Amino acid sequence: MRKFLLILAVGILAFSLAGCEVVSTGAATVDGVTISQHRLDATIAAIAGNPGYRCVLEKEAGLSIDGAGQGTYSSPFVGDVLASLVVSQLLNQAAHKEGIEVTSAELPLASPEVAASLSPSLPAGQTPPCTESGQAMLAAFPASYRDLLLRQQSDVDALLAHSAHIDVSMPALRSYYAAHRAGFATTCLSVIVVSSKAQALSLASQIAAGASFASLANADSLEAHATNPGGSVGCFPVDSSLPSELASVVDGVRSGQVSSPVSYQGDWLLFKVDSRTSPSFDQAVASEVRSQLLSGLSGSIQTMERRLIDHASVTVDSRYGRWRGAAGLAAHSNILVPPTGPPARFVPNAAANRAPVGSSS
Description:
It contains 15 helices and 9 strands. It has helices spanning 5-9, 37-48, 51-60, 75-97, 111-117, 134-140, 143-163, 170-179, 197-208, 213-220, 238-241, 244-251, 283-294, 300-311, 326-330; strands at residues 28-30, 33-35, 186-194, 232-237, 262-264, 267-277, 314-316, 322-323, 336-337.
C-alpha cells in the first residue's frame, strides 16, 4: 500500500502555486486551477533525473519508476507524482487564503527539513541500500525545483505555525533564541557510569580532591571503551539530545565542573561539562529554533492534508487514473488510483501496462 508515497513517506515533492498554470487543458484541475501537462512532465523529469533519490524511491520505497518502453514511466509513479502536485496545490491555496507569505530570506530555513524528508527512516540495524545524503539529493535537483521544494516546505510549516498561533518569522525566531540561548548551546560532555551510589560518591570525592576525571572514567566506568576514552560522549545540544531528567542536571553544571551523582535506569552517573558554547544567531540556528518550535506539530500535517483533500474539487485526466480523494483516505488506499491497463491475459507483453508520460496506458 503506497498511500501518499511521495508526500508522506519521503517528503512533499511538488511545485508551488507559482508553478501551476491556469490553462484550458492539463493533467489535473484543483479547485479551478489547472496543473499543466508541462508542469507534470517537468516534475517527473526532476525526480527521475536525480540518481540518489531514484535509489530511495526504487530500493527503499519499492516504487518502479521506468515504464516498459524507452523514455516512459510507470503509471504508479506518474500517479504518485501527480497526486503530490494536487496536494501541494491545495496546501499552497490554503496558505494564500490565510495571507501567509514566506520571504526569500526564510526559504533556506526549510533546507534541513526537506533534506531529511528525502530519505525515509529505516528500522534500527537495517543497512540502507542508498548512501546519498538527503542534502546531496536536494542539491542534485534542478535549481528551480529545489527552490520550489523549499518554498513548499516553508508554506507547510507556516500553515502549521499559523494554526497553532506560533510566530516563525525571522524576527520572532531571533527573539526566541535570545530568550532561550542556553537551550541551544553545544555542550561537550564526559560521563562516568557505575552500578552503585556508594561508588559514585567515592569517585566524586576523589575528583573533588584533584583526581583526573578521565583517568577514573577509563579505570572504573561501565561505559569505558575505545570509542569514548576518558568518558567523552561528544558535543551536542543537551536539551534536545538527552532525556529531560539528565538534561536538567547537565544544564546546572558549569563548564569544567562535575555534577553530583545522579541515578538513571539502575546506574549512577557523574557528568563533566568539558566546554559549552552558544553560537551566534545565523541561518543554521534559525532552522534549529524553528524546528524546535514546530516539533510538537509534525503529526498535524496529515490532519491538515486530509481536511483539504476532503473539501477539494479535483479532476484528473483519465490517462493518469481516477481521483478518489477522501474516499481513498477512508479506505486507507491511494488518493489517485493509476490506470491498470487491459488484463494481462489480453496483452502479449503484460509489462506494457505502464504508461509513458502524456499518453494513455
